[in-house]
Design brief:
The chain is an alpha/beta fold and 351 residues long. Helices cover 45% and strands 15% of the residues. The longest helix has 18 residues. The radius of gyration is 19 Å and the shape is globular.
Length: 351
């Protein structure tokens, strides 16, 4: 094993409590100006555009926007470019998400949006406030502290997701929600301290060849992000599903080499645990990531992670990812790969 493999990614995953705090502090410092601008966007259909990881970010973010009372839809950026007739006919705001601010399809999506909605606004979430995408936008939410040296997104994803959450809370005027986001950085630090060895143990000792991540509502997009992290970094088979959808076909491949991980929600926790119990009985290994272990019967779980955040499913969502990021990292190391440089991938995708 090369001792230099994954140095950047390991540091970037570990840095997230501090980076989250810096990102949220920056948002709240500028909040008054943001709210004045966002008052315009609040009356529009919010179109979220991203590519790969940032598209998955959009899937979870639009669930929150809708829960707070807004019209919102997430699109792969290329869909906005090539299938504009699928976009809403009413007025819209484009919320473009890109770590680099230079991804080809996202830049094209801004141009296509401007053509279809020439008087409407473009908002960007990025880690690069001076990027091409930022220059093309009317307003920018940035998380420069989340910039990364590793190719795959870890702290950039979670930090940009926090900005999307904060934006949704501001649009809704929900001060309680915004205040609760401040509990996430110390909550993550506590979580990482309690489970520091778990991802390494799973990667080394469980003999897993297939990974499935199940999440519903605000957690589905995050389950998709967990999937892509394992694929990118470890070159290992991973898929994501809504929890009960896993019973409709995918469970055919459940066996002793399968780990089914449930991102357990408040709204559907009992049903989600039953799915994991069924998979355990079929021979699969199971992991439940849950707010409190005492709330449900977890006796058939192989691994239980308690978030213990004191937050609801809409507020705590980002906490589900860092341990999975570490799991992908250690799987990559075990497979002899460099997590900093995944196969066939580059930090910015151009066409």
């Amino acid at each position: 094993m090369n001792p230099h493999f994954g140095i950047n990614m390991q540091k970037e995953i570990a840095s997230q409590p501090g980076v989250w705090k810096t990102t949220l502090d920056g948002y709240f410092y500028e909040q008054e100006a943001q709210i004045q601008f966002l008052a315009h966007a609040a009356r529009k259909h919010i179109l979220m555009a991203g590519c790969g990881t940032t598209y998955f970010l959009g899937l979870s973010a639009v669930a929150l926007f809708r829960k707070l009372g807004f019209q919102a839809t997430a699109y792969p950026a290329s869909e906005i470019v090539f299938f504009p007739d699928t976009l809403p006919s009413d007025d819209a705001t484009l919320l473009a998400v890109s770590r680099s601010g230079a991804t080809s399809e996202t830049l094209w999506a801004v141009d296509a949006f401007r053509t279809r909605y020439p008087t409407e606004k473009v908002i960007t979430i990025t880690t690069q406030p001076k990027s091409k995408l930022a220059e093309m936008s009317d307003f920018v939410f940035s998380a420069p502290a989340a910039q990364e040296a590793a190719t795959a997104e870890t702290r950039s994803f979670t930090s940009m997701f926090l900005l999307a959450q904060a934006m949704a809370g501001s649009l809704a005027g929900d001060r309680a929600f915004l205040g609760h986001l401040s509990a996430l950085p110390p909550g993550l630090e506590n979580l990482l301290n309690r489970y520091s060895e778990l991802p390494r143990q799973i990667a080394r000792d469980m003999g897993i060849q297939r990974f499935f991540f199940l999440g519903a509502g605000p957690l589905y997009g995050l389950a998709c992000e967990a999937m892509i992290k394992v694929k990118e970094i470890a070159c290992t088979w991973a898929e994501a599903y809504h929890p009960l959808e896993f019973r409709h076909g995918p469970m055919a491949v459940a066996n002793q080499e399968t780990l089914v991980t449930g991102f357990i929600s408040d709204s559907a926790g009992e049903a989600e645990i039953r799915v994991l119990q069924d998979m355990h009985r079929l021979g699969a290994k199971t992991m439940a990531i849950i707010e409190r272990a005492g709330d449900l019967d977890l006796s058939e779980m192989d691994v239980v992670v308690e978030l213990s955040s004191g937050l609801n499913e809409w507020e705590r969502a980002a906490l589900y990812l860092p341990l999975i990021q570490y799991l992908a990292y250690y799987l990559g190391i075990e497979n002899g790969l460099d997590p900093d440089r995944p196969n066939n991938l580059h930090p910015v995708t151009h066409l």
